[in-house]
Amino acid sequence: MNDDFFYLKRYAKENALVTKPVEGENRIVFLGDSITEFWLEELPSFFEGRSFINRGISGQTTPQLLGRFEQDVLSLNPNSLHLLAGTNDIAGNTGEMTIDMTLQNIHEMIRLAKQNQMNVYIGSVLPASSFGWKPLVKPSMIIKELNEKLKKLSVELGCIYIDYHKAMQNSEGGMNTTYADDGVHPNKEGYILMANILEKSL
Q1: What is the pLDDT of residue 2?
Q2: CB of 190 within 8 A of CB of 179?
Q3: Do the domain assignments include residue 12?
Q4: Residue 159 pLDDT greater than 70, yes or no
């Protein structure tokens, strides 16, 4: 049994080394699951020389992200938060979840970020027609419904919605094979596209 459900130990050492931001620094924490974590691995040039802090953990769901929000976001004193989450909720990685449950967790993370004067970027859930680790789940329409609600929530709460889904989907609502080798996780080309989309809003 995992005694660290939220994976608070994952970035504990790295967080201890983060200094207070200097005047004029635009520090952004990227919070999410494997899609966020692998972004740094596949496209390190996007993060190099910038005040971008990657705090992605593979497999995580929104309750886990919320559980480590204090340690992996607030304690780092960022100006902005980039939140990309929901894929693993749909897959049921930590138990069956509804869209409303996912939205409640994301709403609470937005509230905490706004309470601490952060700009908030909400990334759309990336397209997928299947999950290799959960073959019985058919996610494409669920992802679209969640993204519609994330976009609405972003408008209501004054966040910036980043629509990666629209640019990365194929005609069946899954991931364009140009941008992912396994249909879920972006390859380098996928991350280049995502970086270009995000840059327009930064």
Answers
A1: 66
A2: yes
A3: no
A4: yes
As given in the structure block, the two tokens for residue 146 are: 């969640």
Q: Do 125 and 143 meet the contact criterion of CB atoms below 8 Å apart? A: yes
Is 17 within a domain?
A: no
User: Which pTM was predicted?
Assistant: 0.96
Instruction: Report the domain count for the chain.
Output: 1
Whole-number pLDDT of residue 3: 77
Alpha-carbon distance values, 41 to 21, 48, 53, 68 (Å): 24, 11, 13, 22
List pLDDT tens digits, range 116-134.
999 999 999 999 999 999 9
Amino acid at 173: G
What is the residue range of 140's domain?
Answer: 26-199
Residue 13 counted as domain residue = no
Is a pLDDT exceeding 90 seen at residue 13?
yes
What long-range pairs does 186-192 form, CB within 8 A, spacing at least 24?
Answer: 186/35, 186/38, 186/39, 186/42, 186/126, 187/42, 188/42, 188/43, 191/38, 191/39, 191/42, 191/43, 191/46, 192/43
Torsion 56-202-41-182 (CA) sign: positive
Kindly state whether residue 141 falls inside one of the protein's structural domains.
yes
Rounded-to-integer distance, Cα 55 and Cα 32, Å = 7
CATH number at residue 85: 3.40.50.1110
